[in-house]
Amino acid sequence: MASVGRILSHDIRQNIQNFKSLFGKDCRWLSSQAIETQAKSSKENADDKRKVDDRENTAPLEFRFKYPEFLPDPNAAYRNSTRERLERMDMMARRAHIDIPTFYVGSILAVTLSDSHAVGKTNRFVGICIERKGCGLRASFRLRNAIDKQGMEVVYNMYDPTIQKVECLRLEKRLDDKLLYLRDCPIEYSTFPFDMEPELIDETAPVRINTLKVPLKPPPWLERWERQDLKGVQEFEVNEKRRRKAEKHKTPWEEFDLMKIYRQTIPMEDQKDIFAEVYSDLHKLEITRRKMARKRKFNRPDKPT
């Protein structure tokens, strides 16, 4: 029996030595400390992966200017997170069926609309975007053009289901956020041909800013333009009475009114959450739009004769 015990103890010691040679002398992977270390490392890896995913889903800062309709109304009385999320889902579903290009105030657009009373059941209007307002499904833009030397304006709801096609013929910005003063400018500044072809642009180049300053016709005007800080209008003169009233209506202190600025803007944290929700879908749509633009740029070579 003693010999059998010595043989068994020798075999056990040999197995332990082999075990240590394979997995290390300390065998810390079996200890509770090793388990905690492994759990901690896996948690750190998960956190790192989550941070990478968050960075990938973070929308660029220019998205707030390219897609301002995704930002809700800053008035707290009209905020509702559930309604806003449902509206964003509807907006993305609409963008999946129709290509709404990036445009700004000052860009020239062509909109094709379903019209049961028009020839061919469609109506196409070309004009310069002079105003863009609203948020969510209530976002709209206003186009202006001259027909038979008469100024015409059409307001479109951006997510109107009757819109069949939106084309950006010329992508550019102007010096002002609104171009409503074109109503009191000579008609040639609001005239654009309906057969205008889209201009090819460089995808990597920044958006061009048109520094054109238009002249105003003599009064009377549709609005008191002397009370507005217009950058895209040439210098004009008004009588002394209107000038004094314009001086009284100036509010230079609003530039430093932090509470008013806060009430009129969406906090940066909310903006990041909103665009992180729709960034992946918008990014896919932009990639598809760029591919289609490259196809339009491609000119098939002529066959050799």
From TrEMBL:
Glycosyltransferase as UniProt keyword: no
InterPro entries the UniProt entry points to: Ribosomal_bL19 (IPR001857), Ribosomal_bL19_sf (IPR038657), Translation_prot_SH3-like_sf (IPR008991)
Keywords assigned: Mitochondrion, Ribonucleoprotein, Ribosomal protein, Transit peptide
Signal peptide start-end: none
Principal place of residence: mitochondrion
GO CC list: mitochondrial large ribosomal subunit
Any one of the GO BP annotations: translation
Molecular-function annotations in GO: structural constituent of ribosome
A Pfam short name: Ribosomal_L19
Record family assignment: Belongs to the bacterial ribosomal protein bL19 family.
Record protein name field: Large ribosomal subunit protein bL19m
Species of origin: Neodiprion lecontei (Redheaded pine sawfly)
